Amino acid sequence: MSRAGMWGFAALMTALVLSGCANKGRPAPVEDHSAAETRGTAKLLPGAENAGKPGYYTVKPGDTLIRIGMDNGQSWRDIVRWNRLENPNLIETGQVLRVQPPVQDAPLVARPLAPSAALAPANAASAAVVAAPAKTSAPAAAEAAEEALSFQWPVRGNLIAGFDEVKNKGLDIAGKAGDPVLAAADGRVVYAGAGLRGYGNLIILKHNNTYLTAYAHNQSLLVKEDQVIKRGQKIAEMGNSDADQVKLHFEVRRQGKPVDPAKYLSAN
Predict the structure, then answer these.
(1) At the topology level of CATH, where does 159-263 sit?
(2) 3-state DSSP call for residue 151?
(3) 230 near 184, Cβ under 8 Å?
(4) Cα(75)–Cα(204) distance, integer angstroms
(5) Cβ neighbours, 10 Å, residue 163
(6) Residue 261 φ then ψ, to 5°
(7) Is the dihedral of CA 171, 266, 223, 82 positive or negative?
(8) Contact by Cβ (8 Å): 172, 159
(9) Strand partners, 253
(10) Coil, strand or helix: which one is 91?
(11) Of 28, 86, 111, 223, which is most buried, counting CB atoms within 10 Å of its CB?
(12) What is the DSSP letter of 157?
């Protein structure tokens, strides 16, 4: 090999050595899995596995527990308990909440004892004998009693706005500030406060497993949550809180859905 060739070979080897030394301290290229990891670890909101199931509700933007409770015929406190919510003021859009009582929490009148797999006899013939009385047992009687429930007028005054499914979910009745507001039927206070926009000082009574009544725009509230109330008992005084005039906005809700109160109010 000529001297020039030897110098060229030496230069090539030197270059290779230097190149290897330069790369020794660099980590190997890392494949980016961030997108896949993000997809694989997307946050699942509480109760997501129950979305769409009967007895559950998916939280929408702007919802509050008070609103959810009224729209589902329940006390907001019961919803907190059923869902084991640590902070009732913190619910998230997309979160799924139980809005019907668990079986063990349900009133007996709503789920009367009926033949079940645990009590059923071993053969079909005897099962028919046991199951037959269920047709005339408590559920039909309980439902009939709830449907027969009637309400007295909560205040005396001029009707200034009737029921409309879209524009007005109850009746608006005029009056004077301080006029007594009376419970339309026996029940229990499931809400008393001013936490629902558009209703002012509000009372919600639960009468049974089917019906709620709501009394809005009061000047003062005279009852507390969980208090048992009798038909005709004074529960508030009329006012104009969150309203343009003194009036009572009165709603009847059947399983959480607004219905025309005029169809349920007694003539007197």
Answers:
(1) Glucose Permease (Domain IIA) (2.70.70)
(2) strand
(3) no
(4) 9
(5) 19
(6) -60, -30
(7) negative
(8) yes
(9) 212, 258
(10) coil
(11) 223
(12) S
Q: Which residues pair with 172 in a beta bridge?
A: 161, 249
Please, where are the H alpha helices in 151-196? Answer: none
CB 215 within 8 Å of CB 181: yes
Residues of the chain with CATH 2.70.70.10: 159-263
**Reported pTM:** 0.69
For residue 208, which phi and psi values (nearest 5 degrees)?
A: -165, -165
How many whole angstroms separate alpha carbon 236 and alpha carbon 183?
Answer: 9
Half-sphere exposure (Cβ direction) of 130: Cα atoms closer than 13 Å: 15
Closest Cα to residue 220, out of 205, 240, 245? 240
Structure-model confidence comparison of residues 146 and 244, the more confident one: 244
Give the CATH architecture of domain 48-104: Roll (3.10)
CA–CA distance, 159 with 173 (Å, rounded to integer) = 5
pLDDT digits (tens, 9 = 90+) for 212-236: 999 999 999 999 999 999 999 999 9
Those residues with Cβ within 8 angstroms of residue 254's Cβ, 6 or more apart along the chain or in another chain = 73, 210, 211
Domain with CATH 3.10.350.10 in the chain: 48-104
Tens-place pLDDT, residues 124-178: 333 333 334 444 455 555 555 566 688 999 999 999 999 998 899 999 999 999 9
Q: Is the pLDDT of residue 119 over 70?
A: no
Q: Do the beta carbons of residue 146 and residue 110 sit within 8 Å?
A: no
Residue 110 scores a pLDDT above 80: no
